[in-house]
Every structure is written in C-alpha cells, then in structure tokens.
C-alpha cells in the first residue's frame, strides 16, 4: 500500500506495510541513519524524531500514523548551514561522549524548547527523563539545554 510521508520538508511516496515502524522507514527506506535504534520498545529515546513538532519515538510509531504529517529528523534540524540553537549549545558544552543517544537527546531538547522556551531545571529533567544516556552525560545535556534557552549554563 502506498503511503505518503513528509520528512524534513520532502514528500516521499512509499510502498511499505502500514505497520512498519517509522524508524525502519527512515533508516532503511530513506537512508536517514541519524535516527538510532536502541531498545525498540519506547524505553530509551534513541529513536526520537519530531512529528508536527512534537517528540515521538519512531521505533513504536507505525508509518501510517504519520501519513500526511510533517516529520523532522536530526538531518532536518539545522537551517541550511546554520545549526539549530540546541545543536550549537551541544557543541559549546561539548556534550557528546560515545554519541549513540545524542540524536534522541537533541530532538527531545529541541521539542522541549519549542514548547517551553524557558524551562525550569525540573521541567528539563522531566522532559528529558525518557532519554537514556549510557555514558551518563546528563549534567552536560542539562547545561546545553539551559544554554540554548539563553540561561547561564
Ligand atoms: S529505540 Fe525507540 S525508544 Fe529506544
Ligand atoms: S553519549 Fe554515549 S550513550 Fe549518551
């Protein structure tokens, strides 16, 4: 069955099973491998993308659920050569360790700041609680979010 999805501003007409997880469509069909597979059961956040601007776990989202909706992946977060403020803050705070969780962390942080541009520390903690980092970069992640929000990090 043909499904039309819009990813990073580009429309794709795909011949895939409607139950296929969005994550597989992004990675295997569209070649957008920036979004990572971690647990596959909505427990780690590695696969986080935006659907209509909200953070969504791509591993448990059937592709038919996003038909006709705007999906953004890490590849579409920057505006041309200009990094998203969250990406810029990530670099300035030197957040990344192994990097595996970072796509999901950045996408969750960007969705948080979009909905709440000046989150409190508690709101940051709550919004990011579903994104696991095996390297334990949580302090730097929170600092980078505060920096992106224009707060002293
Ligand atoms: S891979 Fe989707 S939440 Fe872990
Ligand atoms: S940076 Fe390694 S898992 Fe988060």
Question: What does this protein look like?
Answer:
The chain has helices at residues 22-29, 85-92, 102-115, 121-128, 138-148, and strands spanning 2-7, 10-15, 48-51, 54-57, 70-72. Helices cover 32% and strands 15% of the residues. The model has no long low-confidence stretch (mean pLDDT 97). A hairpin with a 2-residue loop joins β1 (2-7) and β2. The chain folds into two domains: 2-76, Ubiquitin-like (UB roll); 85-148, [2Fe-2S]-binding domain (DNA polymerase, domain 1, Orthogonal Bundle), CATH 1.10.150.120. It is built from five helices and five strands. α2 crosses α5 (138-148). The chain has a five-stranded mixed beta sheet with strand order 2-1-5-3-4, covered by helices on one side. The radius of gyration is 15 Å and the shape is globular. The chain is α+β, with helices and mostly antiparallel strands and 153 residues long. Bound molecules: FE2/S2 (inorganic) cluster (2 copies). Residues 96-102, 133-135, 137 line the site of one FE2/S2 (inorganic) cluster (FES).
* Count of discrete alpha- or pi-helical segments spanning 4 or more residues: 5
What is the strand content? 15-25%
Q: Please, how many domains?
A: 2
CATH architecture of the largest domain: Roll
Quote the CATH topology of the largest domain: Ubiquitin-like (UB roll)
Largest sheet strand order: 2-1-5-3-4
Q: Which structural category do the helix and sheet elements fall into?
A: alpha+beta
Fourth CATH level, the homologous superfamily of the largest domain: Beta-grasp domain
Number of beta-strand segments? 5
End-to-end C-alpha gap: 49 Å
What is the H/E order? EEHEEEHHHH
Mean pLDDT: 97
């Amino acid at each position: 069955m043909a499904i039309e999805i819009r990813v990073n501003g580009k429309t794709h007409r795909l011949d895939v099973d409607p139950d296929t997880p969005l994550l597989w469509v992004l990675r295997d069909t569209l070649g957008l491998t920036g979004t990572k597979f971690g647990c596959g059961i909505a427990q780690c956040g590695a696969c986080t993308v935006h659907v209509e601007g909200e953070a969504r776990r791509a591993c448990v989202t059937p592709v038919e659920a996003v038909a006709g909706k705007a999906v953004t992946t890490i590849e579409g977060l920057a505006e041309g050569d200009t990094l998203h403020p969250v990406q810029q803050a990530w670099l300035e705070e030197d957040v990344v360790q192994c990097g595996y969780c970072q796509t999901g962390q950045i996408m969750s942080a960007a969705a948080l700041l979009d909905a709440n541009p000046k989150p409190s520390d508690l709101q940051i903690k709550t919004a990011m609680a579903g994104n696991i980092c095996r390297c334990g970069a949580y302090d730097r992640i929170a600092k980078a979010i505060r920096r992106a929000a224009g707060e002293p990090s």
